Amino acid sequence: MMSADIDLELILKISPGYIYWKDLNSVYLGCNQNCAALAGLSTPAEIVGKTDHDFFWGINEAEKFIADDQQVIKTKKTLVSEYKLVIKDKKEAMSIVVKTEKSPLLNNKGKIIGVLVIGTDITSEKDSEILKNQNLAQQSTIKAHEYFKKCLDEIQQVIQSYKINILNSRLGVKIDTNNIEHNIIISKRECEILYYLALNKSPKEIASIFAVLDGKSVAASTIQSIIDKQLYIKFDVFNISQLIEKANVLRLIPFLPDN
Question: Are 78 and 72 in contact (CB under 8 A)?
């Protein structure tokens, strides 16, 4: 059995959250200190006689407060709602999200005389939820980009294979198109020779160019040997025109456009 010495005002004062009650017309009858502070009031007594239109959380939210009050009064059922309120401090304004549980307020005869509301600040929970959703959205975007890139790579491989098949048919050379792109590995010197061959330089001219670049004599026979014994074998071709065309298709000649 509840003791007659219980101080209701003390209970309201120490209770967490926001507690308030209104009459049938959504006029405030009282509140706890937390609710008063939320409304910008010094004491709970100052809220008596006011409506939600007297506070600074906006017309839309005020109308929603009142509409929810009236739904509880009409249905005589508890209603759980969420409100986004703008709280004005001395220097700045901030937004908070409050979750409320509105219940019918009854007199000692069981007649409804208003609503009793208990509210809780759930701003941090909402921020965490938003952050979680943002992270999920970011992860989904990353996965979508990875999938899109994979699709583009696969398409490129198909196009490349198609181009190689056309080239093989034109040159009359039979090549394993599934492995050629991965099997052909050329050195820096071989890459340079391919480049100058593509510019119609002869082995002798290439040797002269390398002699200037390297600062030492380079024999034309050395260049010819690299072409015959390394490049022809790697690309499985038999002459320079085939070598240049295939190397260009495989994008192994620097600075030359892909045909």
Answer: yes
Q: What is the pLDDT of residues 161-180, one digit of tens each?
A: 555 555 555 545 454 444 44
pTM, to two decimals: 0.46
Q: How far is CA 92 from the centre of its chain?
A: 30
State the Cα–Cα distance between residues 149 and 168, nearest whole angstrom: 28
Residue with tokens 């002798």: 204
Smallest Cα–Cα separation from 242: which of 173, 160, 178, 159?
173
Domains of the chain: 8-125 (3.30.450.20), 153-249 (1.10.10.10)
Q: 87-132, pLDDT tens digit by residue? A: 766 566 677 888 888 989 888 888 999 998 988 888 877 666 656 6
**Block residue for tokens 């509301």:** 117
User: Model confidence over 5-44: pLDDT tens digits?
Assistant: 545 666 666 667 888 999 999 999 988 888 888 888 888 8
Residue 148: left (phi > 0), alpha (psi -120 to 50), or beta?
alpha
3-class secondary-structure state, position 87: strand
From 211, 185, 206, select the one nearest 195 (Cα to Cα).
206
Geometric angle at alpha carbon 75, from 70 and 81, rounded to 5°? 60
* The token pair that represents 31 in the structure block: 């509140």
Q: Find residue 105's DSSP bridge partners.
A: 114
